[in-house]
Design goal:
This protein has 14 helices and 19 strands. It folds into 2 domains: 151 residues, Rossmann fold (3-Layer(aba) Sandwich); 202 residues, Rossmann fold. Helix 7 packs parallel to helix 9. The strands form 5 sheets. The chain has a 6-stranded parallel beta sheet, sandwiched between helices. Helices cover 37% and strands 18% of the residues. The longest helix is centred in the first third of the chain and has 15 residues. Helix 12 links the parallel strand 18 and strand 19. The chain starts with a strand and ends with a helix. It is of the alpha/beta class and 377 residues long.
Length: 377
Amino acid sequence: MLVREDLNVPLKDGAIADDTRVRAALPTLRGLLEKGAKVIVMSHLGRPKGRPAPEFTLRPVADRLRDLLGREVSFAEDCVGEPARTAAARLGEGQLVLLENVRFHPGEEANDRDFARQLAELGEIFVNDAFAASHRAHASVVGVAEFLPAYAGDLMLAELEALHRALDEPRRPLVAIVGGAKVSSKAGVLRFLLPKVDALLVGGAMANTFFKADGKEVGASYVEDEALQETRAVAEMGGDRLVLPIDTVCAPKMEAGQPTRVFPAGEIEPGWMILDIGPETSALFAERVRAAGTVVWNGPLGVFEIPEFSEGTKAVAEAVANSDAFSLLGGGDTAAAVEQMGMAGSFSHVSTGGGATLEYMEGKELPGVAVLKEAEG
């Protein structure tokens, strides 16, 4: 059984700093192992640019998988060639091997057919459980499906079901919360969501660009000047459904320990930066969330890493968690924020999808999902 997981975890000094994605892979891997499958796992890690790089080895992930699964996990020094073939051939029923980083080969990101064939020769069935990598047309994601019967893993199915439930068949009202820094990186999401939602609440630094596009004072706040025209178009499209902050928490610098002041939105004095939504906005957003049937959230509402500017994100997160709405949180920063606040288990679904979730929320077809549909057809 050849399984593609996304085990692209952050490393610090050679150790895993956050094992969320490893844990997310466990249901699929445990299920296959308990059924006696011989499981060959492949993944990428970082951006080694098509060549072996010791700092991007998956060996620490193999060690973590061993701890979490409570059984032996072997490690192959390469994902193709003799090391991979030998490791796969040695597997008994209910045993697992993790292959070395597929991005150590240029054929991975090039979706090289011969490289995909070498990967496929290691197994008899392909399971794609790497939703977070499925927006990439890479060999280990789409190429192997040309050679093997292809199926979705448990995590892949859970991610797709949550997105479908939230965006295609939502319980109304559907409220979307979009934060983060740049309008340009989320413009596709905003345009896709606006016709679907009953309200779209905007926070984070991207709200500053909306303020400036409307001729309001933003002080020393970060603004994406090159996106002002696009921002005006989104605002016009949104109309009354687009809800911007009404007050903001500001400071002279984006640092802990700074003095803070609350300014009405659009009335920021020179030298002050918007770094969080204000208390009135938190109450307004919480009120919208409490009345929602479905909440989709992508992007924090302030600089949550700094305690002084985390209160807005925290207040809205608590409102979502305590509501009766089906809640889908997506995006790495959003997941990191609720994890930091100890609230990760308080929502219907927290996506590990990152860029894949973002592209799905832009209405794009994901190559790694499309080949599974083709395989089923």
